[in-house]
Write a structure and sequence with these properties.
Radius of gyration of chain A: 26 Å
Distance between the termini of chain B: 55 Å
Structural class of chain B: alpha/beta
Oligomer: heterodimer
Helix content of chain B: 40-55%
Largest interface: A-B, 41 and 48 residues
Largest sheet of chain B: 6 strands, mixed
Number of strands of chain A: 2
Strand order of the largest sheet of chain B: 2-1-3-12-4-13
Shape of chain A: globular
Number of helices of chain B: 17
Helix content of chain A: over 70%
Radius of gyration of chain B: 23 Å
Strand content of chain B: 5-15%
Distance between the termini of chain A: 32 Å
Number of helices of chain A: 14
């Protein structure tokens, strides 16, 4: 009460002195740098990309041309194919990255011997650059001296790398190999928050390992699971560096996803307005996915509360 | 507070004046060459040029190395985005259409036509730097072209670059190797072969005219090569691993460019003779009679076509140092310097007198000049060159990968899409 009265004047209104105002908005002030960075590096480029997507380049100018770029994209078989390839790539990437990441986290969480070393080994691909990783995977599948090509020849035959499905498989495998460490670390962090007593109680009540995981552990780590799902999905849609380094979107355009198509149109062909239109489509894709996940997360929280 | 503002203003003015002072003594250029850490003779040439220019003029060149496959789009985007641009840049003329559409290069018509070396400039090279509206947007420096290298031991009956000779008696595992994917594959392999079959790939307006019986015949021949295992699978892969089959003597013929000798080493002939691990490998093998060259791969009985790529110097729009850039071009365009650049780069000099210099009197260059001058043809005049070249390259690669696809239908679809696309850009 004494504190409250000290900040009020005789008319009962809040004090208008400067230090008080500063204190009141202190959280806002502290957020300002982050907001400024977001505005400059995220919001402005996004708005500018939308503007560019409605134009065409003409002698140093960007001329407004409405939705023509989008109309051309909708009628472009290369773009259609890239959308389907993105869906294929993303599906396998998300399913396997999440699945393997969870599996690795569960195994490491059991505190088996050398689990720290296992984590380090799993984490190495994560710290490699896309170019190094991509070149390595390409070399491993080359017909002449590729080690994995040699091993897998009895199952998949010659030249996996130049088979369109084989090339997509290589790109997916390389991407998962790189990304599993990230999801494993996320899940490991979440698993370590599960109280041991709860698991012990479940075991005493006769729950099997699967039941214990599914009915006790999973509900506790569900938020992390959804966040990992969201981040992995967005990453899968936006993957470009590793694909370029491994196959350059080829052979032909067999591994050209939306992101690599965007790279090709903008940086290979220099058509930035068309590239911006592709980026707007990808942005809508990503926002839609994020909205679905956030809706699920919010619904889960509502249920829990 | 006022003092702080005044101090900052003074600091800004000082920075600007220092920049202006230094601008007169320096020149920033973008090239594909690594003068800081030379890896081949192109890089070494660049490093020597920087030293020579500094000694002659006192101007320091700041050479920014850009990736060979994105230097043109990097320059376009830097100008359009209002970013940091060089005073002068290397450019490839097949991208001239994109530079013209974007308006990202300075008009050099007046400078070029009044230059002392103008009369000595090859008309073909100058045409490659001339935009559709007649303005000259670059100064041509080197003219590269495609041809065939082959191991003499691989073709006991000889090889003249024709399809019949290729399909004749060959002693190596693969008949040939060359890039069969991406824009580069279109330029060095698909286009010369298709043109020799009589295919005309662009009309006068820059529209695609890919769907023709001639194109179909050329692609059917390529399909046959792949089906027979006459060409290594690395020809369809990213990167330059396809070169290995010729370097180790397992492929008899190599779909080459006049520049290939820079990178094609070390070499081992099919009969096991090893040649040096530097840029002299090709000329050494040539002098030993182990390697020879022929016109580009072509349909027997037709005229071969060599894809000519001219590159040059260009000044981006908004360059802060135009006078220094022009002075450099003027300094560089002498017979001796032009031919030194061309010999290092792997092409012919664009100054006609440059061909008479000593560097171009070797067996390699006299042979290459003859092929390029006899069979050279500019790239197809697609309105949006890179988009067109990439689209047809991907279509052909898809046709090679899937023999079930109907060639004419696929070419027609790609052609229609490309033409609709450029119609919106006109």
């Amino acid at each position: 009460m004494s504190t409250l009265s000290a900040t009020r004047n005789t008319t009962g209104r809040e004090s208008t002195n400067a230090p008080g105002r500063l204190r009141k908005y202190v959280s806002l002030w502290m957020l300002l740098p982050a907001l400024a960075v977001l505005l400059v590096l995220q919001v402005y480029p996004t708005i500018y990309a939308v503007y560019l997507s409605l134009t065409r380049q003409r002698r140093g100018e960007f001329e407004f041309m409405g939705l023509t770029n989008f109309e051309l994209l909708l009628n472009n078989s290369d773009f259609h194919d890239s959308v389907w390839r993105t869906i294929t790539f993303s599906f396998w990437y998300v399913v396997l990255t999440i699945g393997l990441g969870l599996l690795v986290a569960i195994l490491v969480n059991r505190r088996v011997r050398f689990s720290g070393w296992y984590l380090v080994v799993i984490f190495v691909p994560w710290v490699l650059s896309d170019v190094v990783a991509g070149t390595m995977w390409r070399w491993m599948f080359l017909e002449d001296y590729g080690l994995l090509q040699d091993w897998l020849r009895p199952i998949f035959g010659d030249s996996i790398y130049i088979n369109p499905d084989g090339a997509m498989g290589i790109v997916i495998a390389a991407s998962i190999w790189r990304a599993v460490a990230f999801t494993a670390i996320l899940f490991l962090g979440a698993l370590q928050t599960v109280p041991a007593e709860v698991l012990e109680s479940a075991a005493l009540d006769g729950a099997s390992r699967f039941q214990s995981f599914w009915r006790v552990t999973f509900p506790i780590i569900q938020s992390t699971f959804l966040i990992a799902l969201l981040l992995t999905t967005i990453r899968s849609v936006n993957t470009v560096g590793l694909i370029l380094a491994t196959t350059r979107g080829g052979p032909g355009d067999a591994t050209t996803t939306m992101a690599t198509f965007l790279y090709r149109v903008s940086w290979g062909e220099g058509n930035f307005a068309r590239g911006a239109a592709v980026s707007v489509v990808m942005f809508i894709f990503n926002v839609a996915l994020a909205a679905v996940y956030l809706w699920i997360i919010t619904r889960q929280k509502d249920k829990q509360s | 507070m006022k003092r702080v503002v005044l101090f900052l203003l003074a600091l800004m003015l000082l920075t600007l004046s220092v920049n202006t002072l230094f601008a007169q003594d320096s020149l920033t250029i973008w090239t594909k060459y690594n003068s800081e850490s030379p890896q081949n003779i192109q890089d070494e040439w660049m490093a020597a040029l920087i030293e020579e220019y500094a000694a002659d003029t006192g101007v320091a060149i700041d050479n920014v190395t850009r990736p060979f496959d994105t230097i043109n789009t990097d320059l376009n985007s830097a100008v359009l985005a209002g970013g940091e641009i060089p005073d002068l840049s290397y450019m490839d003329t097949p991208f001239l259409s994109r530079y013209f559409i974007n308006g990202t290069l300075t008009d050099l018509t007046e400078f070029v036509t009044n230059a002392s070396w103008f009369e000595d400039l090859s008309p073909t090279a100058l045409a490659a730097c001339t935009a559709p509206d007649g303005t000259i947007l670059c100064v041509p420096t080197v003219s590269q072209g495609t041809l065939s290298y082959y191991w003499t031991a691989a073709f006991p009956d000889g090889f003249d670059g024709s399809t019949d000779a290729l399909m004749g008696n060959v002693t190596t595992e693969y008949r040939l190797t060359g890039k069969n994917t991406e824009q580069f594959g279109f330029e060095v392999f698909f286009y010369p072969l298709m043109a020799s079959y009589g295919a005309v790939l662009a009309d006068a307006e820059g529209n695609a005219t890919w769907a023709s019986p001639e194109s179909v015949a050329a692609i059917e021949f390529l399909r046959e090569l792949h089906a027979n295992g006459d060409i290594p699978d690395t020809s369809l892969a990213a990167g330059f691993d396809f070169e290995n089959a010729f370097k180790d003597g397992t492929a008899g013929m190599f779909v080459a460019g006049s520049w290939s000798y820079v990178f094609l080493n070390p070499l081992t002939s099919p009969d096991g003779v090893e040649f040096p691990a530097d840029s002299t490998a090709v000329s050494t093998a040539l002098e030993a009679g182990a390697l020879a060259f022929a016109p580009p791969l072509h349909l027997t009985g037709s005229t071969p076509v060599s894809f000519i790529n001219v590159n040059g110097w260009a000044i981006p729009s908004g360059s802060a140092n135009v006078e220094a850039a022009l002075a450099f071009i003027d300094w560089h365009m002498t017979s001796a310097r032009n031919s030194a650049y061309a010999a290092s780069y792997g092409g012919l000099p664009t100054l006609v007198s440059g061909l008479e210099t000593e560097a171009f009197q070797t067996p390699y260059w006299t042979g290459v000049s003859e092929i390029l001058n006899t069979y050279g043809a500019p790239p197809p005049a697609f309105f949006d060159y890179s988009a067109g070249a990439t689209k047809i390259a991907n279509t052909i690669t898809a046709l090679l990968l899937d023999p079930e696809l109907d060639i004419l239908t696929e070419l027609q679809t790609a052609q229609d899409e490309y033409n609709a696309d450029v119609a919106a850009q006109r």
